[in-house]
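tool=predict chain=A
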Amino acid sequence: MSTLATPQTKTTATAITTWNIDPAHSVAEFKVKHMMISNVKGQFAKVTGVLSLDESDLTDSRVEALIESASIETRDTQRDAHLKSADFFDVEKFPTLSLKSTHISQVRDGELAVEADLTIRGVTRKVIFSVEGPTPPAKDPWGNTRVAVSATTKINRKDFGLTWNTALETGGILVGDEVAITLDVEFVKA
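tool=predict ok
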């Protein structure tokens, strides 16, 4: 019986580690113009997902996340109910928003560009997130190893079927089209 050796292209073995999003320490936030004069901010409180991290080559890493659409909070129950309705997120029909990375490139030390498929209301579009991190691994008081990232992007909500709006008496619209998204995510090593 003979054993075939497989050629190795790298001198050290590459280990991809699995990290789970810690929902208690993670949030997906958004900001959009209201009445063309101020910003309204909100967040989705329930975020889950997995990071497959290659610490030796971050560009070989991958991330996937699910956001529960009904977990939207804007500090106004009436507005939250409207955002959950068919006019906006239609949470009954589309219970989750999702993100799946498709390409990662290193911009500079500590900064990545993550191209991802973002799905909102069943519509998937490519977006590019500017990512700070991941942070160096740190041990928490209970012995878990953690890393964190902060990711930002801007989208046009109409690209995802979020088209509801109303005209203002003085001209303009109630809800802006551009939405700034920030993901502050903490991962726990599996």
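The helical segments are 77-84. The radius of gyration is 20 Å.
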